[in-house]
Design a protein that fits this description.
- This protein is α+β, with helices and mostly antiparallel strands.
- The protein has a single domain, classed as Cytochrome P450 (Cytochrome p450, Orthogonal Bundle), CATH 1.10.630.
- 46% of the residues lie in helices and 10% in strands.
- The chain has helices spanning 30-34, 46-55, 57-68, 88-95, 112-115, 125-135, 141-160, 170-187, 198-212, 218-224, 233-254, 265-271, 282-295, 298-311, 315-326, 331-345, 377-381, 421-438; strands at 25-27, 71-73, 83-85, 168-169, 351-355, 360-362, 365-367, 372-376, 439-443, 451-454, 457-460, 465-470.
- A 4-stranded mixed β-sheet has the order 2-3-8-5, with helices on both faces. The protein has a 3-stranded antiparallel β-sheet with strand order 1-6-7. It has a 3-stranded antiparallel β-sheet with strand order 4-12-9.
- The chain is globular, with a radius of gyration of 22 Å.
- Residues 1-16 have low confidence and may be disordered.
- The structure holds protoporphyrin IX containing FE.
- Protoporphyrin IX containing FE is lined by residues 104, 120-121, 132, 139, 291-292, 295-296, 299-300, 303, 348-349, 352, 410-413, 416-420, 423-424.
């Protein structure tokens, strides 16, 4: 592959990043609410809406935004009269709200029966803040720097095994890298766990279940669990398979003679005490560990897969990255720009939400206390006024422009912003660079991959299939 000229047109004076026209949003009084109309509603039966939303979220949200505007109500799986918004000012009002005014909806999402009620992801209020505070140091600055070599080793080890000259899916290969990374951070293991250990059992169970979750029939299992606190049906069986090695890992670590001096995340969680001197019990630890293992590897693996799915279909962007990396010509800038653009164009978590506990203004509309308000990351990331030519994959739009706090939101925001964002970005930088350095990749077919919706994530339906050749 030969390097081409810069894809940026130096005559192009259009600002790279735009701004949406202001739209007032935030908590209001009951009197103010009475003066505002409710957002328009999607005129379809509930079942049709739930099915369309869960199968074809992209067409659903884009289609109804075209007809109803940036803010509309839908009748979804979350109880209440949920609203979808696509406006950055509405996003800002929710991200900067007092925690008690707009608690997260994750505790009501399909993640709840899987990761339980006790994890940073699903807890709300004081408990959430306490657990979040406990985790943050393990995923910042110095801690991430310690992981860098390990990420690089895992990436090269994995790339060494890839087939050349015949199609394969990137997603499971990415998953192998990101699972090793998160497990070594949590359990303090070097590289892949040794066969026969409790950690190996957990790794095997996670890989098997992630694979099973895309099988036909998995969607039915997902639907059966909507709105439940405890898993049922196939999900229950899956969770039992996962729980066994998880509790084995916990039991083994509780007996470790060096528990007090270990620096891995699991030992730290075991030692942590509340103000009343209480420690986490096994169930609480299980919820937090599974959250970190599941949230911490699938998202990153699929984000990387989507970025390559886009790159191999946009030759200018692809060639520019390859040139930057191989010629060491501003490589960091192009890697960063490519990651920003990949996460903009294909946010792995396409929607997040809060349930407001006060009446709320959303532009020209008002909604009562108790309304679930969801922010469509997909719609925000494709606003024409913020991202001109939004359907093109153009990493160059990020040159000289930083992602906006309320316009680039693949990691959510406010007090619920993704705890693992820095780790995920570090992994993406290292893996993207290693692949661009070592491989020439091509799409196995020219047409873009559809999105498949699995639980709360949106993943490439064919796992980002490519053909690789050594560079
Ligand atoms: C590209 C990769 C990733 C993406 C796109 C992603 C995305 C997200 C999103 C959208 C949220 C919800 C934020 C909100 O509601 O405002 C979230 C929360 C969370 N993520 Fe990630 N994530 C990624 C990687 C990771 C990793 C590597 C970890 C490992 C620790 C992780 C752990 C968490 C946790 C614990 C939360 C809950 C935070 C809270 O509620 O306080 N994520 N993530």
């Amino acid at each position: 592959m030969t390097p081409t000229a810069l894809a940026v047109d130096p005559q192009d004076t259009m600002p790279l990043m735009g701004e949406a026209a202001p739209s007032p949003a935030g908590p209001i009084s009951e009197q103010e609410l009475a003066a505002l109309p409710a957002p328009p509603e999607i005129p379809l039966p509930r079942t049709a809406q739930v099915l369309r939303f869960s199968q074809r979220q992209i067409e659903f949200v884009f289609g109804w935004q075209r007809r109803l505007g940036d803010t509309f109500r839908f009748n979804g799986i979350v109880p209440g009269r949920p609203v979808i918004t696509a406006h950055p000012d509405h996003v800002k009002s929710l991200f900067t709200a007092k925690p008690e005014d707009a608690p997260s909806l994750t505790g009501e999402s399909p993640l709840r029966p899987i990761v339980g009620p006790n994890s940073t992801l699903t807890a709300i209020g004081e408990r959430h803040m306490r657990q979040r505070k406990l985790l943050l140091p393990s995923f910042h600055g110095e801690a991430i720097a310690r992981y860098m070599q390990m990420i690089e080793d895992a990436a090269h080890r994995e790339i060494d095994r890839w087939p050349t000259g015949k199609p394969f899916s990137l997603a499971p290969r990415m998953q192998a890298i990101t699972l090793d990374v998160i497990m070594s951070g949590i359990f303090g293991i070097d590289g892949t766990p040794k066969p026969g250990t409790a950690e190996w059992g957990l790794r095997t169970a996670v890989r098997g279940l992630v694979e099973a979750s895309t099988a036909p029939g998995a969607k039915i299992a997902e639907f059966m669990n909507v709105g439940r606190d405890e898993p049922v049906g196939l999900t229950r069986i899956g969770m039992e398979i996962l729980d066994r090695p998880t509790y084995a890992v916990i039991a083994k670590r509780r007996k470790a003679p060096d528990l007090d001096s270990r620096t891995d995340i699991m030992s730290m969680l075991m030692r942590a005490e509340t103000e009343d001197g209480e420690r986490m019990d096994d169930h609480e630890l299980r919820d937090e560990l599974l959250t970190l293992v599941l949230a911490g590897h699938e998202t990153t693996a699929n984000s990387l897969s989507w970025t390559w799915e886009r790159l191999v279909r946009f030759p200018d962007a692809h060639e520019r990255l390859i040139h930057a990396v191989r010629a060491d010509d501003d490589a960091d800038t192009w890697i960063e720009a490519t990651i920003n653009e990949g996460m903009r164009a294909r946010p792995v978590i396409p929607i997040i939400g809060r349930r407001v506990t006060k009446p709320w203004q959303l532009g020209e509309y008002g909604v009562p206390a108790g309304t679930p308000i969801t922010m469509s990351i997909l719609l925000v990331h494709h606003r024409e006024d913020v991202y001109p030519d939004p359907y093109s994959f153009r990493p160059e739009r990020w040159l000289g422009a930083k992602p906006g706090t309320y316009t680039w939101i693949p990691f959510g925001g406010g007090i619920r912003r993704c705890v693992g964002a820095s780790l995920a970005l570090a992994e993406m930088r290292v893996v993207l660079r290693a692949m661009a350095q070592r491989l020439d990749l091509e799409a196995d077919r020219p047409e873009p991959e559809h999105a498949q919706h699995r639980n709360v994530t949106m993943i490439p339906a064919r796992g980002a299939r490519v053909v690789a050749r050594a560079a």
